[in-house]
C-alpha cells in the first residue's frame, strides 16, 4: 500500500516512511497511522509513505506464509519504484527485529543503502537480545552499523545494546489523540452499591495475561470480594469458546466476568468510562509500550500491569497503579483487592495517571518529539555530507 499526501512541497527534504498501517490493529500499526495523518510531519518534510505490514490479522503476526512472502515481493517492488523514480534522500523505517519479517526488512535496508538513503530506525518491538545465533548476530551488526535508532523507552535499550551505541539512540514515547468520548453522552455515575469494575482491553492472547486475570478473579471470588471484570478485544490464540470454558472451569459467572468482543469508537470510550481500574497482566515477549495503557491513563484509571518492556515508564508502582511480576496471580489478586477496598486510593492514583498522560503521552507531545528527532537527523546527515 502506497500512501501519498495530498500536496507535495519540493523545497522540503524528501523522506520515505516505511511503516505499519492497520490492519491488524496493534501498537505499531496505530502509531504508523498517526504518523501518516500527522499534519506537522507532512508540513515538515516531503513525505511518501509505504505500508510494510504483511499480516492482515493478529493471528498471522510472527508466522511465515506464502501469502506473506508474496506480500513481501510486492513491498519490494513498491520501494524500488520509489527509490528509482522519487529518489528520497532520507528514510524512516519501522523495522521489525524478529521473525520472518526481519529477514525481509534486512533486504529492504540493503536496498535503501545501495540507493544512498540515510536511514533512521524506529523500533516498536523487541527480542534482539534473545537471538544469539551467529547468522542473526551478523545480520544485526550490518543493519545497525552506525545507525540512528528511536526507542520508545530507555527500558528497552538493553535489547539492542550489543549492536547500537547509546549515543546513537533517541527516545520518543508513544502518544495518542485525546478521545474522552468526543463530546458524545457519557454514562451517569454508578451507584455506590455497584461492584468495582475492572477492564481488560486487548486481543485475547494468552501471553497478554487473559487466563492469569481470570485466575485472579477466581481468587477474589473465593475471598468473597465483590467485583466485575469486563474483557474487550478480538479473538487471538484464545477464542470465545476457550475463554468461556476457562470461566466455567474457574466457576466465574456472567455477573463477575463478561467478554464483549471488539469495541470501537464511542463504545470503546464508554468501556473506559464505566471502568474503575484497568488491568493488563502481560508477559507478551514483544511488549514495549502498550497504547492501551495510555488510553486508560487518559480516562483517569489506575492500572495494574507487569514490568515488561517499557511499561514501568507508564505505570509507576504505588503512584498511578501497581506493577506485579508476570504470572504471579496471587499478587495480582492482592493488588486488585487493595484497589477494590480503597476508593480514595483508586481516585488518587487515577488523578495522577491523568496528569502523567497530559504531560508525557498525548499525540501532540509525540508528534513534536518525533518531528524534532527527524529534523535533527537530517541536519546531522547534511553536516556529515559537507565534511
Could you characterize what this model shows?
The protein has 387 residues and is α/β, with parallel strands linked by helices. It has two domains: 2-177 and 363-386, Glycogen Phosphorylase B (Rossmann fold, 3-Layer(aba) Sandwich), CATH 3.40.50; 180-360, Rossmann fold (3-Layer(aba) Sandwich). The chain is built from twelve helices and 13 strands. The strands form two sheets. A seven-stranded mixed sheet has the order 1-3-2-4-5-6-7, with helices on both faces. A six-stranded parallel sheet has the order 10-9-8-11-12-13, with helices on both faces. It is elongated. The mean pLDDT is 91.
Distance between the termini: 37 Å
Number of helices: 12
Name of the CATH first level of the largest domain: Alpha Beta
Query: What percent strand?
Result: 5-15%
Q: Looking at this structure, what is the CATH superfamily of the largest domain? A: Glycogen Phosphorylase B
Secondary structure: number of strands: 13
Main sheet: strands, sense, barrel: 7 strands, mixed
CATH fold name of the largest domain: Rossmann fold
Amino acid at each position: 500500500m502506497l500512501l501519498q499526501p495530498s500536496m507535495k512541497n519540493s523545497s522540503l527534504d524528501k523522506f520515505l516512511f516505511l511503516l505499519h498501517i492497520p490492519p491488524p490493529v496493534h501498537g505499531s500499526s496505530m502509531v504508523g497511522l498517526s504518523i501518516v495523518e500527522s499534519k506537522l510531519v507532512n508540513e515538515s518534510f516531503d513525505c511518501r509513505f509505504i505500508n510494510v505490514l504483511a499480516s492482515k490479522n493478529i493471528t498471522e503476526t510472527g508466522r511465515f506464509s506464502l501469502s506473506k512472502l508474496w506480500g513481501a515481493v510486492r513491498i519490494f517492488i513498491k520501494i524500488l519504484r520509489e527509490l528509482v523514480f522519487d529518489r528520497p534522500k532520507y528514510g524512516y523505517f519501522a523495522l521489525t527485529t524478529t521473525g520472518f519479517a526481519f529477514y525481509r526488512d534486512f533486504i529492504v535496508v540493503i536496498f535503501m543503502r545501495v540507493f544512498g538513503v540515510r536511514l533512521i530506525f524506529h523500533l516498536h518491538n523487541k527480542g534482539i537480545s534473545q537471538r544469539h545465533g551467529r547468522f542473526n548476530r551478523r545480520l544485526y551488526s550490518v543493519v545497525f552499523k552506525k545507525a540512528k535508532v528511536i526507542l520508545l523507552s530507555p527500558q528497552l535499550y538493553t535489547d539492542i545494546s550489543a549492536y547500537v551505541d547509546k549515543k546513537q539512540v533517541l527516545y520518543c514515547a508513544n502518544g495518542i489523540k485525546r478521545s474522552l468520548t468526543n463530546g458524545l453522552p457519557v454514562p451517569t455515575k454508578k451507584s455506590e452499591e455497584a461492584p468495582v469494575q475492572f477492564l481488560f482491553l486487548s486481543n485475547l492472547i494468552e501471553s497478554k495475561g487473559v487466563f492469569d486475570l481470570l485466575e485472579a478473579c477466581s481468587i477474589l471470588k473465593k475471598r468473597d470480594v465483590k467485583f466485575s471484570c469486563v474483557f474487550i478485544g478480538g479473538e487471538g490464540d484464545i477464542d470465545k469458546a476457550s475463554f468461556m470454558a476457562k470461566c466455567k472451569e474457574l466457576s466465574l459467572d456472567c455477573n463477575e466476568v463478561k467478554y464483549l468482543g471488539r469495541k470501537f469508537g464511542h463504545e470503546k470510550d464508554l468501556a473506559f468510562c464505566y471502568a474503575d481500574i484497568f488491568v493488563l497482566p502481560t508477559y507478551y515477549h514483544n511488549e514495549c509500550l502498550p497504547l492501551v495503557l495510555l488510553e486508560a491513563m487518559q480516562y483517569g484509571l489506575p492500572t495494574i500491569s507487569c514490568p515488561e518492556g517499557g511499561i514501568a515508564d507508564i505505570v509507576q508502582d504505588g503512584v498511578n497503579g501497581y506493577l506485579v511480576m508476570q504470572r504471579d496471580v496471587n499478587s495480582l489478586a492482592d493488588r486488585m483487592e487493595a484497589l477494590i477496598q480503597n476508593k480514595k486510593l483508586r481516585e488518587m492514583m487515577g488523578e495522577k495517571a491523568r496528569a502523567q498522560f497530559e504531560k508525557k503521552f498525548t499525540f501532540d507531545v509525540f508528534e513534536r518529539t518525533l518531528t524534532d528527532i527527524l529534523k535533527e537527523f537530517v541536519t546531522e546527515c547534511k553536516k556529515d555530507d559537507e565534511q
